[in-house]
């Protein structure tokens, strides 16, 4: 950009000095104003782009928030359904055990069944609930079969339940308490632990009932 004196000198070739001075000042001031407007227009465009980007970002965030809400709802609903299925499955297993276990014990132990169902047993002042307790007599002697019902029995659950039964026996040494595992299946290690403990098991793949006088 030429300075006012430089422009003035050029204008003096065609115009008188007063006119050359005025035109030089007007030209420079007009040029400065034009540059300012151009910059302003450019800045306005940038601001508009930023505003649009902000609007789009806000819309994207809103959609994400709505999607997250739907995801949270779906997860909560799934958890509810799984929980309900678990409860239903557990209940059906217990009902199935109440029907089937007494028949099996009648067959293998000639046990005279008095009752079968969920029951709480007092252990040193505390109540412990068992999925199914089958009460009856074998050769005239009272027997309690404590049943653990699980869809799939693993070794950890076997060891845990056996400890529970031992505590119940310690609290009631006068009772003949015997553990029994009931479910759909158990892995090999779990079955080995059950056999080693002298406990009974009833699974879809087979039944293992020790002799009445050898039962744990």
Q: What is the tally of beta strands?
A: 6
Mean of all residue-level pLDDT scores: 80
Give the percentage of residues in beta strands: 25-35%
Please give the largest β-sheet.
6 strands, mixed
Radius of gyration, rounded? 44 Å
Largest sheet strand order: 1-2-3-4-5-6
Distance between the termini: 107 Å
How would you sum up the global shape? rod-shaped
Order of helices and strands: HHEEEHEHEE
Describe the model.
The mean pLDDT is 80. The protein has 4 helices and 6 strands, in the order H-H-E-E-E-H-E-H-E-E. With 216 residues, the chain is α/β, with parallel strands linked by helices. Strand 5 (200-203) and strand 6 (206-208) form a beta hairpin. The protein has a 6-stranded mixed β-sheet. Helix 1 (4-11) crosses helix 2.
List the main descriptive attributes of the protein structure presented here.
4 helices, 216 residues, six-stranded mixed sheet, Trna Endonuclease, Chain: A, domain 1, alpha/beta
Summarize the structure.
With about 220 residues, this protein is of the alpha/beta class. It contains 4 helices and 6 strands.
Topology:
Layout: H1 4-11, H2 17-109, E1 112-123, E2 126-138, E3 141-153, H3 155-171, E4 177-186, H4 188-197, E5 200-203, E6 206-208
Parallel strand pairs: 3-4, 4-5
Antiparallel strand pairs: 1-2, 2-3, 5-6
């Amino acid at each position: 950009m030429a300075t006012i004196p430089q422009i003035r000198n050029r204008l003096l070739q065609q115009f008188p000095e007063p006119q050359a001075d005025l035109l030089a000042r007007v030209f420079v001031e007009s040029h400065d104003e034009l540059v300012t407007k151009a910059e302003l227009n450019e800045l306005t465009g940038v601001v508009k782009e930023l505003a649009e980007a902000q609007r789009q970002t806000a819309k994207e965030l809103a959609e994400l928030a709505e999607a997250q809400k739907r995801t949270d709802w779906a997860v909560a609903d799934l958890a509810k359904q799984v929980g309900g299925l678990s409860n239903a499955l557990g209940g059906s297993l217990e009902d199935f055990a109440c029907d089937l276990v007494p028949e099996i014990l009648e067959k293998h132990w000639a046990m005279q069944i008095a009752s079968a169902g969920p029951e709480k047993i007092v252990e040193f002042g505390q109540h412990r609930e068992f999925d199914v307790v089958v009460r009856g007599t074998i050769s005239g002697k009272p027997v309690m079969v404590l049943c653990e019902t699980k869809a799939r029995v693993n070794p950890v659950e076997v060891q845990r339940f056996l400890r529970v039964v031992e505590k119940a026996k310690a609290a009631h040494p006068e009772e003949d308490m015997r553990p029994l595992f009931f479910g759909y299946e158990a892995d090999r290690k779990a079955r080995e632990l059950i056999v080693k403990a002298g406990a009974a098991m009833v699974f879809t793949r087979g039944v293992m009932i020790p002799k009445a006088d050898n039962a744990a």
